[in-house]
Structure formats: structure tokens, C-alpha cells
Amino acid sequence: MAKRNKMCPICYLRKLFTGAPRHREDGVEPYENGVRKTPLMGWSSWNTFRNNIDQKLIYDTALALKETGLADAGYVYVNLDDNWHSNMRDENGEWQAELVRFSEGIPALVGKINDLGLKVGIYSSNGTLTCEDLPASLGRELADARTIAKWGLEYFKYDFCHNEKVPSYAPLIYAITVSEKGSGKETDYPVSNAILKGYARRMKDKKLPGGQYVSGMDAGAGSIVFDNIVVDRAGEYVLTVCIKKYGQYEKYLGVTVNGKAADGIYFPSQKHWNLTARFQTVVTLEAGRNSIELGNPVTDAKASAAVQYRHMSRCLVRAAREQAEKSGKEVKPILFSICEWGFRKPWLWGASAGNMWHTTPDIRPWWNWIKIIYSRNVKLWEYASPGHFNDPDMLEVGNGSLTYDQNMAHFALWCMMSAPLVLGNDIRKITKPVLDIVTNRDLIAIDQDPLCKQAKRVRRGGVDILAKPLADGSTAVCFFNKRPWASGASYDLAQLTRDDYVAAKPFGGEIRYVVGEGSADGSKVKVRIPKDGVVVLIFK
Predict the structure, then answer these.
(1) Would you say residue 288 lies in a domain?
(2) Number of folded domains in the chain?
(3) What InterPro entries does the record point to (predicted)?
């Protein structure tokens, strides 16, 4: 059997499955980029217009947001989804807008929309191409993030089409060097002085400098820590990883500096004209002693996606900071939307990578599909927090053949679940009933409540009951009738005082109906709910 990682494969597999703790990637604290802590509110082009967008449509929609009062209600982001750009990057390798439909360019459009008091967002994919097969950002993350910041954009939706998985293999390391950027002088750190974690092992090879290398760092199995990195000045340093060439397959190395994730290093399939090779990245070190940990954290597709989205998130923060320094203006933070479709469980890692994450495939204006999306997202209440939200996708309110009650239920449920409120209809032609739904102040206040807790489903059945704690000590309750006929329901609100998550205060006798009506006998409420409809109340 081939020793793919230069260890006995049978011994290596036996160690992997004996139940010993596996190394996990460090530096995955909640993502902070200075954006709003409550869910995004805005509009996006995809649901209605798909690949048929141009600068006039986008600007006219921005005007409509102002003129209808939607902007005053909180819908301030105008987001260009796929098909905003040309298939050709410019001579510098940068994105450029679709040369005919956006002939004035994105910066000009951003300026005009900013003058309305609104913000602009844009789209790409965590792949080699977007979902419409246009230039995307995988492998070009920092360059594209710099373009986003330079153009003054404040929202970035990052899809998952044409994705390529991060390799789960790690290289064979025999040393690292550290050099102050621009100095040309480097300090060697052989693996003999490093700390090994997990299943990382030193292996002998007399042909290598130092006579040994470290293996056993594939797929989260182990890591190597150099905790003796000493520098005189804080700043940027070139980290060079010295490897023994082995195997004609791609490899990856995660880099953690002083407990925080830094940019990883990709290693291509290697030709073997020489025994060794050097690969580099730039890290930020503190004056004095530093620690650098290396290992491959990619255990599966979920971990691969997390690595990639975290990398883009760091690029966006860096690009926004650099642009502020160049312009002499305040940082324009970029709200980061992860659109991975929920297959790789982004609720488990999304808060360390972005501000919101799709929990499902794309929404459509079909009632049964909206209910399916709801049923997936409602289970994920424990993963939402200020600045980090489950995203059941854009709103279809006003689209398709949804009834008034279905539109109301759709909007109310998204508000109860602390979801981003991204309109997907044609704002220029919005009807009064639809406008009244999406500007319902009480529902928006529930969604935008600063406590930022997603509602928990406290009863499941033909009528679901959701409860959402609010910052002022009150509790929002939603009765959702999933049946295709009108139904009655009753519930004792006092039960919510015993739920550790909802933690409702003792019922004080005050009930206010936000959607629909009901009756109460003390803390016991009875409601009548239309088919496919909701009743929403707030009690203290």
C-alpha cells in the first residue's frame, strides 16, 4: 500500500478511528466587521429579474424604495445579484460591469444610489465562475474584495456555484522561516524545536536539512506549533514553509498566528525535479514572542467551505480598512452574506465567517416550497445572535400567485425567525396590500429587536406556535396554521416562563395583537387562524 502521507496507512487509519480527539482549526471566534447587529433589510434583483438587469432598473428600484416609504421602513440595501458584470475582466484583472447594460460602471451607480441615502451590494461566487458562468472569486478573494471596497459597496453575497473543495492533505514540513517584509533576512525554525499535536509525527530523512520532517497533519488529524517565534517589531512578516516534495496531488495548510486564523497556503501537485520547495504567505506578528500553528483542518466538505468563507471574510475586512486608509475616510464595513445553500451546515460555522448564511436552497414563490424552507430554518433558533443570522433566503412577498394570507404568513414568519428581510419583488409596481405587509411596523420591530434572538418553535403540529423573546422583556408569539383550512388554537402563555430559552416574564395581563385577533382568559389565549395564515401577538 502507498504511504500517501509518508506514514504506514494501516497504522494511520487505526489511529484516526480509535476515538482520540482530532485537531480542530483554531481562530474561529465570531466574525466582527463593524456592520449592523440587527438583520439586513433591503432589496435584491434575483427573484424577479434574474439575468435581466441594467443600471436603469437598479436605479429606478432605488428611487422606488425612497418614494414608497420602504427606505424609511428600513429597507436601505440595494443589491445587484448575478449578471451585473461582464465575462471579461479588465486589463488589470479586475471585474468590470456588463459593458452595455451597466455602461456607466458600478462606481457611478453606487454614487447615485448613495445620494438617495441608500447602500449598494453586489454578488459573486465562491467558485471559479458564478451561477451564471461569469468571473467569480475563488482564488482571487483579496483582489475582488479590494474592488468591492474601492467601489464603495457595503454588502456582498457570496454564492457557491463552481466551487472547488480545499484539499484535505497537508504537506511534509521540515522547517519554517520568518522574515520581516522587505528585509531579505530570514530566521530558520526547524521542526526539531516544534510542538506536535494530535497525530503529527517526526519522520527521518537524512537528505533534508535537519534530517527530519513532520507528517500526519492531513484532514484535521494533527498540527505543528512553533511557539518560539521572536521578533523585535510588530508588523508584517513573510512566513516561508519549507517542505519535502511528495505526491502528485494538491495540499493545503491552515495557518494560525497567536490563536487567530490567518491566510492558509495552497500547494499544487508537484513535479519532482528537486527534493524540497518553499511556499509563502504574509502574517502579522507582535513584538516579542509569537506562536504559529500549521495543520490541515479540512476533514470534510463542511470544513472546506468554512475555510473558504472565512478567508473571504478576512479579505473583506482588510480591503475595507485599506480603502479607508487610502481615501482618508471612515471604514465602510461590508456586510457579508454566505450563500452556500445549507448543504454544508453553515449554521455550525457561519458566525465565524459572515453576518448571515443561507440555510436552504433558493426560495421560489410557491407556498409549499416556502413552508419547506420555514420548516428547515425554524429548527436553527439557537445559532442566531447579534450580527449573525440564519438566512432562509429572500422574500417572495408579492411574487407568484401567493394569497394575501400566505404573503402575510411568509413575512411574519421571517420576522419571527430574525431573518434578513430582503425584498425580491418589483418595487416599481408594488401594490398597496403588499406594501402594507412589508412595512408592518410591529412585525419589522420584532425582526429588528436588538436582542436578536430567533423565535423558538414551542409547539409543532397542524398549527405551529413560535415564541421570540424581546429586548424590553415582552414576548412575541406567532400561531402558524399550516393546514389548507381555517383552524382554531389555544395556548397558555404562562408556559413560556418555564422555557429556558424564551424565559418569558410572568404574564402581566397585557396582550397586543399584531396580526389577527384572539381572546384571552388570563394567560390562556384562543385564536382563529385563516388557512395558510398567522396570528401574531406580543404579551407582557
Answers:
(1) yes
(2) 3
(3) Aldolase_TIM, GH, Glyco_hydro_27, Glyco_hydro_27/36_CS, Glyco_hydro_b
Q: For strand 195-198 and strand 222-231, is the pairing parallel, antiparallel, or unpaired? A: antiparallel
The pLDDT-based confidence of 489 (bands split at 50, 70, 90) is: very high
Residue 207 and residue 151 share a domain: no
pTM (two decimals): 0.94
SS (H, E, C) 252-263: EEEEEECCEEEE
Task: Return the percentage of the chain with pLDDT > 70, whole number.
Answer: 95
- The percent of residues above 90 in pLDDT, for the chain, comes to 94
Q: Which residues, in sequence order, are CB contacts of 13 under 8 Å at separation 6+?
A: none
Asked if residue 399 and residue 320 are part of one domain, the reply reads: yes
Grid cell listed for 393: 433566503
Which one, of 197, 226, 227, 201, lies nearest residue 213 by Cα? 201
Q: Which domain holds residue 390?
A: 41-162+306-362+380-404
Q: Which residues sit opposite 195 in a β-bridge?
A: 225
| Mean of pLDDT values over 219-247 | 98
Q: What is the pLDDT of residues 351-374, one digit of tens each?
A: 999 999 999 999 999 999 999 999
Check which CATH number belongs to the domain holding 138 and give it.
3.20.20.70
Residue 108, φ and ψ in degrees, nearest 5? -65, -40
Q: Could you say which of 297, 330, 347 is where a domain stops?
A: 297
CA dihedral 93, 96, 100, 106 (to 10 degrees): -170
Give the helix ranges, DSSP H, for 252-300.
none
- 25 with 45, same domain: the answer is no
Res 14: pLDDT: 45
The DSSP-derived string for 439-504 is T-HHHHHHHT-TT-PPPEEEE-SSEEEEEEE-TTS-EEEEEEE-SSS-EEEEEEGGGGGG-TTT-P
Domain boundary among 297, 318, 349: 297
